[in-house]
Amino acid sequence: MRGEGAALLALPPDAPESAQVAISFHNGGGEPAVVRVEGLWLLPAPAPREQCAADSRGVLFENVSADESEPGGEGRRLALNIAALAENGRSWPEVKFNLQEGADGWSIEFRRKTGGFERWPGGKRDVYRISGPAALAEAIAALPSEADRRLLGALAQVLPDVMQTLAARGDLKAGDGSSWLELARAIRDASDGA
Question: Is 26 helix (H, G, I), strand (E, B) or coil?
Answer without folding.
Answer: coil
